[in-house]
Amino acid sequence: MSRVSVEVENHIARVTLTRGDKMNALDPAMFDGIIEAGEGLLDRTDVRAVVLAGEGEAFCAGLDVMSFGALASGDPKDILMPRSHGDSNRFQQVCMVWQKVPVPVIAALKGVCLGGGMQIALGADIRIAAPGTRLSILEMKWGLVPDMGGMAILPRLLRSDVLRKLIYTNDLIDAAQAEAWGLVTELADDPEAAALALAEQIAGKSPSAVRSAKALIGYAETHLADIEAVLLEESRAQAELIGKPHQMEVVMANMQKRAPVFKD
């Protein structure tokens, strides 16, 4: 049975974790489904934004511990150290694939967003949460550290002291506190509807400019110490956009006071 559904309509891909009866807990099939869904979007030129959500009452309750007994029975290095997906292992790819998807990804959070589920949400560009959502960087509960891509992203979002507190204690926090600390972008009573509305807004912008913006932001975030390189990349990205069909259509649409129409 598929653990993840993907529906594309009006240039928006709706990716839904479909193990709602288990609070979308991560078992091996769920890992495979998430990776397949994300990688399936990498070359989709018709997709302009992604909404990532969970079926039922929760976004994701984290790792289904009973499903991963093999990690304890063998040498973990044999499972964790190989780079099976570019710069990532299989477990990291469920988070990092959303960073690699070339269009904005918006995660709609509700119920709980714990452990591995938190790290999947971190892979999104934007996180919208229902006010009652509970979140945790949960790994310390099991004597572990975040290892599904979270440490590539969390230091960009959180102050060091807040990050350390959340990792050391695995405390549950509510969505309002998560928003105040930077884990959540904004709150909405219906996060999926809010995520879809935002995706629709983004899908109406220049597709090439939005893709370029995501790539440029990612480049800048990973080259913070090299201002010269960031400035050069900024200029290169802009030069690739100016005068091209999407940019010219935006200019004409603004002048004619109408919505732009882009060819796929």
UniProtKB/TrEMBL annotation:
Pathway: Lipid metabolism; fatty acid beta-oxidation. GO terms for biological process: fatty acid beta-oxidation. Transmembrane segments: none annotated. The keyword Lipid metabolism applies. One of its GO terms (molecular function) is isomerase activity. Its EC number is 4.2.1.17. Keywords: Fatty acid metabolism, Isomerase, Lipid metabolism, Lyase. It is an enzyme of class 4 (lyase). PANTHER family: DELTA(3,5)-DELTA(2,4)-DIENOYL-COA ISOMERASE, MITOCHONDRIAL (PTHR43149:SF1), ENOYL-COA HYDRATASE (PTHR43149). Belongs to the enoyl-CoA hydratase/isomerase family. This is Putative enoyl-CoA hydratase echA8. The gene is echA8_2.
